[in-house]
Amino acid sequence: MEIFDESCWEEHKKVITRKEHGIPGLGNFAYWNMAHATPPTPHHHHSDIVEIHCLVKGKRLSVVGEETFTVTGNEMFATFPYEPHHNGSYNLSPCTFFGLQINIKDPGHILGLNREYSLAIHRILTNIDHRHLRFTSSDQLLLKQAFDNISDGDPDALMLGVQYLSCFLFKIPEFIPVREEEEKKIQDPNIKRVLEHIENSYKESLLLKELAAISGYSLSRFKIKFKEEVGLTPANYITFKKLEYAKQLLRTTELPVTQIALDAGFSSSNYFSTVLRNQSSYSPSEYRRISRERMQMSGE
């Protein structure tokens, strides 16, 4: 089945449809800023469309065939025409991303560009070797400027938005493949040092200024570098580590929720419950029951 979001302009979801922007070859262009867990999208496909999701922050699961991909900040994920895909069976954690659909049915008329440039974008989109790619903060800015201008509605702003979007698409061959079977490699040795410290200490109280001191960067520079390397902010990453540990205890032990919360480093069981519900829409007891039911069904 095919699924297309309808036009929407709300705080957490902004969707500009083909009917609204009128740009040839461009389908929906969307910006999602989900503050709470949302139900996964079911199996679907898009005829003649290359769909691209670009994560700004958070994490998002995408399933194609038998493969599951975990996409984080500054990473792009592409699905191709008629290719069934979905977001798994669990509710999606909060995340922020841009989503765009490029219709490649008419290779010579994409984004209203002349034939030469349109065919070049078509070649790029139909020759993507890796669907999961990493881009830079400057590439992300191109998307933001494209979305802001196209959503403006003014004819001049619309044309400017097309230029920004074209620049982003032409840069796709430069993006770095993210290989799911390999641990994501952190290039910055200073950030590696911080990650090692977090791994050993995430259950304790960690101050960002202390982590910045370990990295040797100023606090503002540390936050930027950490997100570029890891795909999450330092605070979100620490919360993620605590939550994953707590979820493991819920699945595999009979420990009380209060003890699990404190063992994982949360300040209280109420705060842990709030974070878990925000990330999954489940309470601790619901998560424990549902995860165990699914483990039994899968034979784990």
Q: Give average pLDDT, whole number.
A: 90
Question: Biggest sheet: strands, sense, closure?
Answer: 10 strands, antiparallel
Shape, per Cα inertia axes:
globular
What percent strand? Answer: 15-25%
Question: Mind explaining what this structure looks like?
Answer:
The protein has helices spanning 18-21, 115-126, 137-152, 155-170, 189-201, 208-215, 219-230, 234-252, 257-263, 269-280, 284-298, and strands at residues 8-9, 13-16, 26-34, 49-64, 67-72, 75-79, 85-86, 95-103, 132-134, 176-177. The protein has 300 residues and is an alpha+beta fold. The chain folds into two domains: 8-177, Sandwich (Jelly Rolls), CATH 2.60.120.10; 189-298, Orthogonal Bundle (Arc Repressor Mutant, subunit A), CATH 1.10.10. Strands 1, 2, 3, 4, 5, 6, 7, 8, 9 and 10 form a ten-stranded antiparallel sheet that branches. α6 (208-215) packs across α7 (219-230), α8 (234-252) crosses α11 and α9 packs across α10 (269-280). It is globular.
Summarize the structure.
The chain has 11 helices and 10 strands. The chain is an alpha+beta fold.
Topology:
Layout: E1 8-9, E2 13-16, H1 18-21, E3 26-34, E4 49-64, E5 67-72, E6 75-79, E7 85-86, E8 95-103, H2 115-126, E9 132-134, H3 137-152, H4 155-170, E10 176-177, H5 189-201, H6 208-215, H7 219-230, H8 234-252, H9 257-263, H10 269-280, H11 284-298
Antiparallel strand pairs: 1-2, 2-3, 3-8, 4-5, 4-6, 4-7, 4-8, 6-9, 9-10
